[in-house]
Design a protein that fits this description.
By secondary structure, this protein is an alpha+beta fold. The chain has a domain at 334-467 and 528-646: Orthogonal Bundle (Serum Albumin, Chain A, Domain 1). A hairpin with an 8-residue loop joins strand 27 (640-645) and strand 28 (654-659). Bound molecules: glutamic acid. Residues 465-469, 487, 489, 506, 509, 533-535, 559-561, 564 line the site of glutamic acid.
Amino acid sequence: MKFVNKTGVANLPNWRWLGALAALALGGCGGAGSTGVVNAFSIPQPCLQKSGSNTVVVGSGLPGDPAIPEPQSGYRSGIQPVSAGTFMVVTANPLATQAGCSVLASGGTAVDAAVAVQAVLGLVEPQSSGLGGGAFMLHYNANTKVVQSYDGRETAPAAATEDYLRYVSAADKTNPLPNLGQSFLSTKASGRSIGTPGALRMLELAHQDNGSQPWAGLFQPGIKLATDGFAISGRMASAISGARDDLLRDPEAAAYFLNNDYTPKALGSTIKNPAYAATLGTIAQGGANAFYTGPIAQSIVDKIKVTTGGVTSTVAITPGLTELSDLANYKAVRRTPVCGTYRNTWVCGMGPPSSGGIAVGQTLGILENFDLAAAAPTLINAEGGKPSVLAVHLVSEAERLAYADRNKYVADSDFVALPGNGVASMLDKNYLKSRASLISSTRSLGTAEAGVFSNAVVLGSSATEGKGTTHMSIVDKFGNVVVMTTTIESGMGSFHFTRGFLLNNQLTDFSFAPSDTSGPIANRVAPLKRPRSSMAPTIVFNKAADGSRGDFLMATGSPGGASIIQFVVKTLVSAIDWKLNAQQATSMVNFGAANSPTTGVGGEHPSIDVSNSGLNDPLLNGLRSLGHTVSFAAQSSGVSTIIKTQPAGQSAPVFVGGADPRREGLALGDTLP
Ligand code: GLU
């Protein structure tokens, strides 16, 4: 079939034609979700990045290529939303986005793209995620309308005890080594922090369920980049230099990340990772079994068991107790997602062992009792806008109440049951209404108490979690959606490196102490248990006329440790209550609170005035007058958002993508100019 559009260009493949139609549909149209400047007569092309009036291939190294490294900055102003006709991928790294987009452009599914994205992220953003880590994924099947969640969380080894993280042994009650001053840091850098990796098993399971392209081919972009080399990005360079001393304890890590004189490899220098290419090649051919058994599994176990380390000097390292059987027996799990209504939407998230879905759902359920639309931001612009004092107060109070429940009740529910009737009780609208009634309009709660449930056992409380991690949001041309947050826990994980990838320190997400004065802690260590997470990959749907879950509306998620919950809530409220587009909602000032008197307002954002110790900013002052202890420290979210947007008066919806200006991310698809 031959199509001719207004530029006279013929023979557009089908997707291009659809995209061209959507571009025409967007032309001249304003309003939320379509703020990008649209040239109605340009031809959309897949996976190309706009650069001035031209387009450029991501990774080509040509001017305008977003993969050309730049120094890490706290915030990149002026990012425009990206629109696409039928498919889109947003990740925290341009090369990973490019790999995912190529898979989508060739007809792959969202899960196919996720496999390719993860393989590349493990190379180009190794500080955040990879084969040595864990992940959670939500998948929406546009055909069956089923939302499925996948749990690829790391597990504690079978030999772990409840004191695994804090004591070397029952007889030796000293902290694991190396001795880095604080027990958290020491344990993180020891073998004790390393959980049995889960990301790859999870991707395999999701691919078996929802993949369409052959597994092996999905690793080719990663293999090629690892073989040919890539330029070290700003964030990766900064992660290497920040972790230099820790990487020096592992000769393999030092050989990869450092120069011969042990200086950190620099921004923009080309780095090749043949060991990683070989690992990916083995997995491509042999499937996840080739990782969980055989020589790669042996290398992982050997690395976890190292007892000394150091290139320039040698220190003792406490080994982990992981065995080959831990790897061979690891299972990714299909779990029921946590879904609930919020105003005119349904919001689905990840249940235990993540606290993300429940905490986001509780926060929204509490906020539903307030008119947030009436507390909209002012000075709306490309970066979102300036949140109102009332909105930040209400959202952070709702979060305090949600974190109080999370810290006390939520852990791996295969080991410790949730209170009441589980998720249903914790998200019950009447319960959340009673929690909302605890919020005062004139005074912050400071620290909230956990709610009371009928059959809850007496529990202590824990709040730990680090900072690292990365999030991808993907929609394929069939309408399937993937949101996946993937992590090696904190930056550079445990600093243990083998076969081209880093091993996680995810077990430090457990409580180090098994109990406190109130009782046992739900998130204490146990053999084969999964540490509680805050990761919150989230899919939002419109509410259908009969109240049931309707069409896909939005995909989002973020890294950020326990703050993930706040980053995701901020993005959801910005889109749902304030009707901001995907980029504005993603860029919007980060604000919120865990369960303490401190309310964070991200000072890296251009609309926050941090001069004079923050005393010139009316938002910060307004919060102080309500009793909040205000922190305006920079916040390092990494939100990746896609919103299905219906341009006014047009028949074809488009996908609008937003990448977090605080990281290096990029949205691509069958992109509309
Ligand atoms: N390990 C954390 C979690 O699972 C994530 C860490 C991060 O986002 O930096 O919740």
